[in-house]
Amino acid sequence: MTQARLTHPMTPVSREHEEAASSADFDEFWEQSLAEARSFELSVRIDRIDSPVKTIDVFDVSFSGFQGEAVKGWLRKPKGLSEQAGAVVEFVGYGNGRGEHIDSLLWSSAGYAHLTMDTRGQGSVHSPGHTADPHGSGPSVPGFASRGVTDPSDYYYRRLIVDAVRAVDAMRSLDGIDPSRVALFGASQGGGVALAVAGLVPDLAAVVAKVPFLCDIPRALTLAESGPYMEIVKWLETHVHREQEAMRALSYVDAVNFGPRATAPALFSAGLRDTVCPAPTVASAFDAYAGGKELRIWKYGGHAGGGSTEDLEVLRFLDAHLG
Which residue, 84, 120, 124, 192, is most buried by CB atoms nearer than 10 A? Predict the structure, then answer.
């Protein structure tokens, strides 16, 4: 195992990104987005399902996300979980949905209540999803990363980030959950979403961003060789005269810009051989993050980061902050 802690970025934050991110209405944009979502009832619904899993209770969950639209999830709770339990809210990777209820049992096996949020419109690559995205967009490259990319209000990731904030609201509203002991976990797309939520939701107990997407996006578009960044690259290749519009919209969902607003202790990771979410982009988000933070570098790791070895470190990190 090779790992390191960095207290400085591997490369400086790009000047082009700083200009795109200097919009004075960043905070207002997100305040209005969340106020609009919260004008709808949270409408949390929890239905216990019959499962052959013997040690964990599983619930089919729905709550109101962006514009009050229903978002699905799985809630897993260890049997006999004490009152005022610690909890983990998970956001999943690109193309994936909440999966099957027997997937992702690690966090509940470790003793935490665990909510896996479905990803609107996705869920057909490695795991199925059950939440629609009823919003259309202008011309886009197949996938999700370029949908609505010329307008921050219409951009796909605005909707997904609002859903994610509401997922935290839903978890904190549940009986038996200590609202002060809620942590976030995400890998790749989920890691980028977790970092965005960390900048929007106060008093989180901890944040884990494993090989996160949506970090220093201008630099990522020059370094990535595969994955969803390439959808944006392809879109810009075709819509070459709309680069300024796209970069402005992307700046509203970039983890670098949420970082100064985040306070929860965070664990980042990056693989030096990652061609999907290149390590220098993760370093930029790490450097911008205002809360206590650690960064694990996996010298030979690709987009899987440190694999199960990293999962063990994450469990120890969560135990330290959730108890």
Answer: 192
**Cross-strand pairs, 297:** 270
Q: Which residues contact 240 (CB under 8 A, 6 or more apart)?
A: none
**Quick one: which of 163, 135, 204 has its CA closest to 63?**
163
Q: Give the closest residue to 292 by CA, choosing from 266, 316, 269.
A: 266
Give dist(CA 33, CA 12) in Å, integer. Answer: 30
Active site residues: 188, 274, 303
Helix/strand/coil for 184: strand
The Cα–Cα gap between 118 and 63 comes to 11
Q: How many CB atoms lie within 10 A of CB 190?
A: 27
Distance between CA atoms of residues 35 and 38, nearest Å: 5
- Report the C-alpha gap between 304 and 312 in whole angstroms: 14
Q: Which of 66, 97, 105, 88 is nearest to 172 (CA)?
A: 88
Q: Is 55 helix (H, G, I), strand (E, B) or coil?
A: coil
pLDDT in tens, the chain (323 residues): 334 444 333 444 444 444 444 557 999 999 999 999 999 999 999 999 999 999 999 999 999 999 999 999 999 999 988 778 999 999 999 999 999 999 999 999 999 999 999 999 998 777 888 898 989 777 777 799 999 999 999 999 999 999 999 999 999 999 999 999 999 999 999 999 999 999 999 999 999 999 999 999 999 999 999 999 999 999 999 999 999 999 999 999 999 999 999 999 999 999 999 999 999 999 999 999 999 999 999 999 999 999 999 999 999 999 999 98
Q: How far apart are CA 184 and CA 175, in angstroms?
A: 19
Q: What is the DSSP string of 146-169?
A: TTTTT-TTT-HHHHHHHHHHHHHH
Beta bridge partners of 64: 70
- Nearest-Å Rg of the Cα atoms of the chain is 18
